[in-house]
Every structure is written in structure tokens, then in C-alpha cells.
Amino acid sequence: MPNILYPPPRPQSVGEILDSAFRIFRATLLKCLPYATIAVIASQLPNIYYLATGRGALARIPGLIRDPVWWTLYVVGYLIAIVLWSAVLLRQYAIATGRPVATGAELATGLRRIPGMVLLGILTSLAIVVWILPAFALHGAARFWSMLLLLVPACCVGVALSCGWTVLLVTGEGAVASMSHSWRLTSGSWWRLTLIYSVALVLLLVLYSLSALIAGILAVLLSHGDIAVTTAATTVLVVILSAVGTPFYWALALAVLGDLTARREGADLAQRLSAPATP
What is the DSSP code (8-state) at residue 130? Predict the structure, then answer.
């Protein structure tokens, strides 16, 4: 009998949500790592282009707008990454709900939902950024303090819409409907979600810092002072760490969605939510 990790049978505490995220992460990491790795590489295509042409990553800043190749690679890489990130979540969703994983099916679903995901990303970004824009009309210390103050409602909106992408992929709803659904689910749970996301962020930062420290020491010892080898080892490290972090993020997103659905709309609806998503 398959080990069902999603949805939860009842609302969970903060600790239980994090535990559910780790269980989903452990059960799906190896199966999702190829997608996550390629997604990281795709998102770095502009930087790879500049490094391959003998220019550092920072060299793109002065001539960024005048370089169509950089922009083309940025857009292509972003779209590829969106599809692969979606594939990670959909594969985790299938494994967590105990269904057979159809290789390639999650990629096809991600491709079909590119328009909705792009629109959702744009609308969510606008909904958050619009709160900060008034600060740019000010100058000096007034701009700083007003921006700091306006970050509060901006963060509230960000947390309220944080489940939008997960809802879109799991349920097949459109961009606007997913935003509305996320807003309903997260209503009244701002502090809980902020705590969950903060703890998860700290855990990731600690993991990245320790891994980077250990890998950096090993790279220096094994490279014998060769800068090229050290740079290559560091680049590989960044790709690996980012690839490992992606499945954890989506595992947390699934755990949060499952808890909020059970909490706000009942366990029965959570069970129906675990039915196969519509194409």
C-alpha cells in the first residue's frame, strides 16, 4: 500500500507542517532532482553566456538593455525553468498522494499551463510592488522610512498570495481564480504562515552555509590553488545546492496547501483536492 503523504487528515500545527514538508522532500528528492538541476541551469543561461564570452556576470549590468542575446536567453531560460519547477511540484504531488508517476506527464502539464503561470507571476508581482511604489516619489530618509513602512502591507499581500502557484498546478484553476483561492485559504493565517516560511528560510540558509563552507574547503584542498578548478567547483556547488533547495520549497508549498485546505475548507475537500488535476 502506498505511503500517503498528502493531503493531511486534519489541520496541523506549525511543527507538523514542517515535518510533512520534510517527509515529502525526503520521499521525492531523488525523483525530482533531475528536473530541479536542469531548471537551475536554465535560469543561469544569461550568466553562462557572459562567462562563455569571456565577460564576468557583473559585466552585463552596464550594457544589459543593449544586449538582445542576454534578454533572449533570460526569457527562454525563465520559461524552461517555469516548466521544470512545475514538473517538480507535480511529480511531488503524484508521489505524495500515492499515485504512479508517469514520466513526462508533468512536463506536458507544465507546458500547457505556461500562460497561466506567467500571468499569475505578473499579477502577483504587481499586487505586491504596487504598495511600495509611492515611496519612490519621496527622497532621502523619507523614501527609506516610507518604503520600510509600506513593506508591511506588501508582505501581507505576498503571504496571502503565496499559495497561488500551488493552487494553479494542483487544481488547474486559472491565474485570477488561483489568486482568489489563495487569498481565501490564507485568510486569518498570516502569522502562522510567516512563522512557517521564516523557519524554513532559516533552515535553508543554515544548510547552504554549512554546505558551502565544507565544499569550499574541499575545493581549495583538491584544486591546489588552481583558480579555474576552484571556480568550476564553486559553480557546481551552487547548481547542486539550488537544485536540492527547489524540491524542498515545493514540498513545503504542498504541505502548507494541504493544511490550509483542511483547516479552511474541511478534510473532505482536501481529499477531493488530491484527485488528479485537470489538464
Answer: T
- Cell numbers at 247, concatenated: 524540491
Q: Are 155 and 245 in contact (CB under 8 A)?
A: no
Number of helical (H) and strand (E) elements in the chain, helices listed first: 11, 0
C-alpha–C-alpha distance, residues 84 and 76, integer Å: 12
pLDDT in tens, 208-222: 777 667 766 766 676
Nearest to 182 by CA among 153, 200, 198, 158: 158
Q: Which three cell numbers stand for residue 156?
A: 501581507
Digit-coded pLDDT (tens) for 152-183: 999 999 999 999 999 999 998 999 999 999 99
Question: Would you kindly state where each structural domain of the chain is located, as residue ranges?
Answer: 14-273
- In this structure, the dihedral spanned by the alpha carbons of residues 150, 153, 156 and 158, taken in order and rounded to 10 degrees, is -60
Cα–Cα dist 168/272, whole Å = 15
